[in-house]
TrEMBL record:
GO CC, alphabetical: cytosolic small ribosomal subunit
InterPro entries, sorted: KH_dom, KH_dom-like_a/b, KH_dom_type_2, KH_sf_prok-type, Ribosomal_S3_C_sf, Ribosomal_uS3, Ribosomal_uS3_bac-typ, Ribosomal_uS3_C
Protein name as catalogued: Small ribosomal subunit protein uS3
Record keyword Ligase present: no
Stretches the record annotates as Disordered: 215-334
Composition-biased stretches (Polar residues): 312-334
Biased composition (Basic and acidic residues): 231-242, 269-287, 294-311
Length: 334
């Protein structure tokens, strides 16, 4: 079975950073559970605001929460009243009133190419009994229209209320999961339908990270040769090289066979391809008879049947008229 790696965890420290950035030795379990409670609370109470992801940073007795949302006005509220309310509730949730908490609201410009928002949108429409194929195709077309280079959506569960669960997915464009420098955005959501839960996974390819390319400070002499732009083209190029090598080997083998045939004087390829003919070796072949000797032997056989000594007449001179007539009257079967 093919093993799948989480696209975000596979690229941590390369072109993706951690969502929780802090360090602690003694209070690590406690702070970890605080982060989980904060995320679950915000996701549950601000689900209508379209939250993409939540980042938490800690330093000493301070905590900064960055909320990425597609509808920042809903979270901010009138004159920032909603932000103050969320701040107080988070302090009560963590049971640390003496700790300072800062909340930053950051807007997601294009929600159509944010994998988490796309997954949640698909899940929401599945809960409203919309056909899952129509939802998936619509999400793919809108993502490509807004600049995504590739997108893959997978739905698993009792699709359309089927008795047996199955998994269906659609892919458009390129989604190079094994390319580390590729910026792959991954999102997951669950649709809670009357038939059961349906899982929705979304992969969106937004291009390669330019930071991982060769820096401009490196001189042109030290710079490594450039690779091809896309892995698909490079793979096709490698396949083309293999085909060329196979053709060269086949031509070399054909030339060797023709050279052997020229040396032996026998065209083995024609004998092999000729139907109803068996290939004979040099030992099996009978020595060829000269036409003159064969004609003399045939004439001797005919003379024995008629009682004429054709050999003696041949040595003495030409045949008489009666003998020539007898020779002409001999049937071809004899």
């Amino acid at each position: 079975m093919g093993q799948k790696v989480h696209p975000i965890g596979f690229r941590l420290g390369i072109n993706r950073t951690w969502d929780s950035r802090w360090f602690s030795r003694k209070e690590y379990p406690k702070l970890l559970h605080e982060d989980l409670h904060i995320r679950s609370y915000l996701k549950r109470n601000l689900a209508h605001a379209g939250i993409s992801r939540i980042e938490i940073e800690r330093a000493a007795e301070r905590a900064k929460v960055n909320i990425y949302t597609s509808r920042p006005a809903i979270i901010i509220g009138k004159k920032g009243t909603e932000v103050d309310r969320i701040k107080k509730e988070i302090q009560a949730l963590t049971k640390r009133t003496d700790k300072e908490i800062f909340i930053n609201i950051k807007e997601v410009r294009n929600a159509e190419i944010d994998s988490q928002l796309v997954a949640e949108n698909v899940a929401l429409q599945l809960e409203r009994r919309v056909a899952f194929r129509r939802v998936m195709k619509k999400a793919i077309s809108s993502a490509l229209r807004f600049g995504a280079k590739g997108i893959k959506i997978a739905c698993a569960g009792r699709l359309a209320g089927a008795e047996m669960a199955r998994r269906e997915w659609y892919l458009e464009g390129r989604v190079p999961l094994h390319t580390i420098r590729a910026q792959i955005d991954y999102g997951f959501a669950e649709a809670k339908t009357t038939y059961g839960q349906i899982g929705v996974k979304v992969w969106i390819y937004k291009g390669d990270s330019l930071e991982l390319e060769v820096s401009d400070t490196v001189s042109t002499e030290e710079r490594a040769p450039k690779r091809m732009k896309s892995d698909r083209r490079s793979g096709a190029f490698a396949d083309g090289e293999k085909k060329v090598r196979r053709r060269r080997r086949a031509r070399k083998l054909d030339s060797e066979i023709t050279a052997d045939n020229d040396d032996s004087g026998n065209d083995l390829t024609d004998q092999r391809n000729r139907p109803g003919k068996r290939m004979e070796s040099q030992q099996d072949k009978k020595p060829a008879q000269f036409p003159a000797a064969a004609r003399e032997k045939k004439v001797e056989n005919r003379s024995d049947e008629k009682g004429h000594d054709t050999g003696a007449q041949k040595n003495n001179g030409p045949l008489s008229e009666s003998d020539q007539n007898d020779e002409n009257n001999i049937s071809p079967n004899n």
